[in-house]
Structures are given as structure tokens and as C-alpha cells.
């Protein structure tokens, strides 16, 4: 049997091999940083979407909790005239004065 002798590599060869490994590891670090950046962007988008949904729900909650102004029903012509007469009476006008200002002499 032939005995194979182990070939010793020179220091320069070993350093070159180590440098190649270092470059590969540095490249994989760069790739990992890129992946991390992409993942962070995706998570930031998800976070922004969730914050928008929360804000929308808070607006809905505020709408529910704050009472809306009561819609006034429409008044008929007769009701409007009655209100005007009441206001005139409250301001101290007598019915004769109201009729006089309106130019109505036949009623009183």
C-alpha cells in the first residue's frame, strides 16, 4: 500500500481560503440586512394599516357617543304664522298693533 503524504498548504493559500470564507459571510450579512429591511417595510405597512383601522373605529365610537342634533320637523304655514304671532305678543305688541303693522284692518 502506498502511503499518501499529506500535502501542506502554504500560509498564503490558507489565508486566501479564509479571506474567501470571510467574503461569503459578509455577503450573507448584506443579504440578511436586505431581508431585514424588506421585512421592516412590510411590518411598517401592516402597522400603518392597523393604526388607520383603529382611528376609523375611534371615529365611529365618537359618532356613537356624541348625540346628533335633533332634526327639526318642517312647520306648516299655519304653525309659522302662529309662532310669529306668539313672538309679537311676547315682545309686547297688542293684537291691534300687530294687525296695524300687517296692514289688516278688517279683523279687529
Structural features:
mainly alpha
Mind explaining what this structure looks like?
The protein is mostly helical and 108 residues long. 71% of the residues lie in helices and 0% in strands. It has three helices and no strands.
| Mean residue pLDDT | 88
User: End-to-end distance, in Å?
Assistant: 146 Å
Radius of gyration: 45 Å
Amount of helix = over 70%
Characterize the main sheet. Answer: none
What's the number of extended β-strand segments?
0
Strand content: under 5%
Shape: rod-shaped
Q: Give helix and strand order, one letter per element, not per position.
A: HHH
Which residue ranges are poorly predicted, with pLDDT under 50 across at least 5 consecutive positions?
none
Structural class of the secondary structure composition? mainly alpha
Total DSSP helices: 3
What's the quick description here?
The chain is an all-alpha fold. The chain is built from three helices and no strands.
List the helices and strands and how they pair.
Layout: H1 11-65, H2 77-90, H3 95-102
Amino acid at each position: 500500500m502506498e502511503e499518501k503524504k499529506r500535502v501542506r498548504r502554504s500560509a498564503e493559500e490558507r489565508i486566501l481560503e479564509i479571506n474567501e470564507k470571510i467574503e461569503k459571510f459578509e455577503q450573507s450579512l448584506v443579504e440578511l440586512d436586505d431581508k431585514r429591511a424588506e421585512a421592516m417595510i412590510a411590518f411598517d405597512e401592516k402597522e400603518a394599516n392597523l393604526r388607520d383601522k383603529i382611528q376609523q373605529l375611534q371615529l365611529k365610537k365618537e359618532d356613537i357617543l356624541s348625540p346628533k342634533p335633533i332634526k327639526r320637523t318642517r312647520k306648516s304655514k299655519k304653525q309659522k304664522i302662529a309662532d310669529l304671532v306668539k313672538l309679537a305678543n311676547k315682545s309686547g305688541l297688542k293684537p291691534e298693533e300687530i294687525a296695524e303693522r300687517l296692514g289688516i284692518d278688517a279683523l279687529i
